[in-house]
C-alpha cells in the first residue's frame, strides 16, 4: 500500500526555521534478539564495527580526516546555512564520548546549539528521529536536515534548501551519479530529469534501476516526515506476527513464532531508506538535488584515505590557511598539525594528514596517507596509501604501503591471489614495524609488533 501524504500549507505561527540532525550511529536489528549493554567504551555491535581497528579507540564520527573529526566537516557545512541554529547528534554511543567534542564545537560554531541525544536501544534512522520528535520539534521548525555522519561530500545544504523552497517540497534527497556496477550497492533514485521529482526509490536493488544514488543527506518538511514515520510504525504494528524459519528448515519443528517482546522491539526499528523513502516517492512532493561535486561513504577504515584526499583537495581549492605551504618537499595538499615535527628532508604529499605530536624523520616519504597523533616514522621509511595509528612506530628504511584504487571506485578492497584483501594498509594503536620491514595491504590490530615482511594479511 502506498503512503499518500496530503500537501499542506505552512502552519500558522510556524517559525520558518530549519534544524539539522546528524546520525552518528546506525544499526539494523534483524529477527534475532540482540542485547546491548550501554557502556562508555567505543566499539560493539552498534559502534562502527566495519571501521575497526580504528574504531576500537575512537568512534568513527570523531576519527580525524584532513585534520578534523569526520563529523566536524558536517558541522562546517551546517554552519553556513543561516536558518539553522540547532543541531542534534543522534546515536547509541555513551554521552561521555561526544562531551569534549561538543564543548570544543560550541566555541568554534558559536551560532549553532549542538546537543547529543542517545537512543536507549538501536531504533534505526527514522525510529531515532521519531523517538526524539518532541526535542526536534521544539520551537516549531519548518524543515529538518538529516545527515549521516559517515558521508564525505561538499554538503550543498543551501542549494537543497533553495530547491525545497522553489518546489514547495516535502522532501529533498541529495543524489550523485556512480557507475552502473556500483549503483546496486546504494539506494537508487529514478527521477524526472526536467522537474527533478523523485519517481521511484529502491534501497540496494537486485537489478539495475538507475545510476543516480542516495548520498545520505536529506531535507524534510517537519509536517511530512513525522506523519510518514508514524504511518510506517502503524503499518509495522498492525502486521500480524509472522512465522519465521531458517532457510534450511524442512519441517515445522525448526520454525518458531516471534514472541511479543521481540516483535515489539523490532516494530520500533524504522529505517529511513527502506521504510520511508519509497512511500514518499508516491507523494509527488519528493525531489532530488544532484551534486556534481565529490562524494564518498566512510564505511570501512580504509575508506578514510580517499575521504582524506577529497577533503584536502577541497581545502586546497578554497585556499585554506590550515594547509602546509607547497615546497620542493611538500606536494600539496598536505595538512600538518602545528605540534607535529617533520624533518625538512622528509617529502610529504599529495593528500597527507599528519596529526598532533607526530614525528617524521629525515628522508621519509609519505604519500596518500594519514599519520595519527604521537606516531613516529623513522628516517628513510616509506609510507604509501596507509594509516599509521596512534603511538605507532615505523622503523628506519621500513616500507608500509597499500595499493592505489581507481578514483571512481567506491571500494577499498582488491583481489590478491584470488583473495579479497584491504587495499589500504592500516596500523592500529601502538603498533610497531621493525627496521627494513615491508608491510603491504595489511590490517594490523593494536599493540602488535611486525618484525618480518608481511603482505595481504590481517595481523591479530
Automatic annotation (TrEMBL):
It comes from the Eukaryota. Residues 47-230 form the Nucleotidyl transferase domain. Signal peptide: none annotated. CDD domains: M1P_guanylylT_A_like_N (cd06428). Pathway: Nucleotide-sugar biosynthesis; GDP-alpha-D-mannose biosynthesis; GDP-alpha-D-mannose from alpha-D-mannose 1-phosphate (GTP route): step 1/1. Keywords: Membrane, Transmembrane, Transmembrane helix. The keyword RNA-binding does not apply. GO terms for molecular function: GTP binding; mannose-1-phosphate guanylyltransferase (GTP) activity. Residues 331-457 form the Mannose-1-phosphate guanyltransferase C-terminal domain. It catalyses: alpha-D-mannose 1-phosphate + GTP + H(+) = GDP-alpha-D-mannose + diphosphate. The keyword Repressor does not apply. The chain crosses the membrane at residues 20-36. Its EC number is 2.7.7.13. InterPro entries: GMPPB_C, Mannose-1P_guanyltransferase, NTP_transferase_dom, Nucleotide-diphossugar_trans, Trimer_LpxA-like_sf. It is an enzyme of class 2 (transferase). Involved in cell wall synthesis where it is required for glycosylation. Involved in cell cycle progression through cell-size checkpoint. Belongs to the transferase hexapeptide repeat family. This is Mannose-1-phosphate guanyltransferase. It comes from Rhypophila decipiens.
Amino acid at each position: 500500500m502506498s503512503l499518500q501524504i496530503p500537501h499542506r500549507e505552512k502552519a500558522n505561527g510556524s517559525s520558518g526555521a530549519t534544524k539539522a540532525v546528524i546520525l552518528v550511529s546506525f544499526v539494523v536489528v534483524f529477527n534475532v534478539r540482540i542485547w546491548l549493554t550501554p557502556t562508555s567504551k567505543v566499539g560493539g555491535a552498534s559502534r562502527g564495527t566495519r571501521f575497526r581497528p580504528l574504531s576500537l579507540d575512537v568512534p568513527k564520527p570523531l576519527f580525524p580526516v584532513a585534520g578534523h573529526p569526520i563529523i566536524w566537516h558536517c558541522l562546517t557545512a551546517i554552519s553556513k546555512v543561516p536558518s539553522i541554529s540547532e543541531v542534534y547528534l543522534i546515536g547509541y554511543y555513551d554521552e561521555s564520548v561526544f562531551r569534549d567534542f561538543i564543548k570544543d564545537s560550541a566555541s568554534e560554531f558559536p551560532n549553532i546549539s549542538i546537543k547529543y541525544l542517545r537512543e536507549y536501544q538501536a531504533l534505526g534512522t527514522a525510529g531515532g528521529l521519531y523517538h526524539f520528535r518532541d526535542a526536534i520539534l521544539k520551537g516549531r521548525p519548518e524543515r529538518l536536515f538529516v545527515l549521516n555522519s559517515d558521508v564525505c561530500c561538499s554538503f550543498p545544504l543551501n542549494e537543497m534548501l533553495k530547491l525545497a523552497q522553489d518546489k514547495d517540497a516535502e522532501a529533498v534527497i541529495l543524489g550523485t551519479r556512480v557507475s552502473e556496477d556500483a549503483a546496486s550497492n546504494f539506494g537508487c533514485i529514478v527521477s524526472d530529469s526536467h522537474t527533478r521529482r523523485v519517481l521511484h526509490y529502491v534501497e540496494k536493488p537486485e537489478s539495475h534501476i538507475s545510476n543516480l544514488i542516495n548520498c545520505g543527506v536529506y531535507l524534510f518538511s517537519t509536517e511530512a516526515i513525522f506523519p510518514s514515520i508514524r504511518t510506517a510504525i502503524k503499518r509495522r504494528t498492525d502486521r500480524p506476527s509472522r512465522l519465521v524459519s531458517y532457510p534450511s528448515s524442512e519441517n515445522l519443528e525448526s520454525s518458531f513464532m516471534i514472541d511479543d517482546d521481540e516483535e515489539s522491539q523490532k516494530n520500533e526499528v524504522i529505517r529511513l531508506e527502506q521504510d520511508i523513502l519509497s512511500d514518499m516517492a508516491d507523494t509527488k512532493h519528493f525531489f532530488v538535488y544532484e551534486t556534481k561535486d565529490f562524494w564518498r561513504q566512510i564505511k570501512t577504515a580504509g575508506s578514510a584515505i580517499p575521504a582524506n584526499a577529497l577533503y584536502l583537495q577541497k581545502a586546497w581549492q578554497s585556499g585554506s590557511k590550515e594547509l602546509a605551504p607547497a615546497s620542493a618537499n611538500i606536494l600539496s595538499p598536505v595538512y600538518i598539525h602545528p605540534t607535529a615535527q617533520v624533518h625538512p628532508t622528509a617529502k610529504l604529499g599529495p593528500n597527507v594528514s599528519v596529526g598532533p605530536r607526530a614525528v617524521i624523520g629525515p628522508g621519509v616519504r609519505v604519500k596518500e596517507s594519514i599519520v595519527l597523533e604521537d606516531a613516529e616514522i623513522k628516517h628513510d621509511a616509506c609510507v604509501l596509501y596507509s594509516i599509521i595509528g596512534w603511538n605507532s612506530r615505523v622503523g628506519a628504511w621500513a616500507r608500509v604501503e597499500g595499493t592505489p584504487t581507481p578514483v571512481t571506485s567506491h571500494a577499498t578492497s582488491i583481489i590478491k591471489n584470488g583473495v579479497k584483501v584491504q587495499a589500504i594498509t592500516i596500523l592500529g594503536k601502538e603498533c610497531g614495524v621493525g627496521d627494513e620491514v615491508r608491510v603491504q595491504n595489511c590490517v594490523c590490530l593494536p599493540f602488535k609488533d611486525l618484525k618480518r615482511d608481511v603482505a595481504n594479511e590481517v595481523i591479530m
